[in-house]
Amino acid sequence: MKRDAYRVLQITETVIYLFAGFLIAGGAAVLLLSTLVEGVYHLMRGDYGEVALSLLDRVLLALMLAEILYTLLRFAKEGTLEATPFLVIGLIAAIRRILVLTAEAVEKFDLADPAFMAVLAELGLLSLMVVALALAMRLTRSEAGR
């Protein structure tokens, strides 16, 4: 009886992870398709900066979703979680934000504006986060190699 209940819970867990994986894959597909449609629209209007910014932002978001999907599938197969995929997701998220912030700040560059100082502070913190995540990845990989 106990073994059957454990087996049912194990199957339920796998189904939940697979369902979540399908939702993430579908969301990434919709995100990329809408990015393509909006990109063509902005290209036709001549908003090249908007196209570049949108592509950068959304494609990196799709990469984050792909990394989450990879992590879910790996967990469903092996039953173990590793830190490295989450660190990769964090790195992509931080780099994505840095790129989007700098792309947006180019148009609004004014040293006297307090908002510009806030952007600089955010960029500094994001840069520290990238370094910390990269160090954490290196440490987890060197630990795995031992």
Describe the structure.
There is one protein chain. The longest helix has 44 residues. α2 packs antiparallel against α3 and α3 runs antiparallel to α4. The radius of gyration is 20 Å and the shape is flat. By secondary structure, it is mainly α. The model has no long low-confidence stretch (mean pLDDT 86).
Helix content: over 70%
Mean pLDDT: 86
Strand fraction equals under 5%
Instruction: Give the beta-strand count.
Output: 0
The helix-strand sequence is HHHH
> What coarse outline follows from CA principal-axis ratios?
flat
Secondary structure layout plus pairing:
Blueprint: H1 2-45, H2 48-78, H3 83-107, H4 114-145
Helix pairs in contact: 1-2, 2-3, 3-4
Attribute tags:
146 residues, 2 domains
Summarize the structure.
This protein is mainly α.
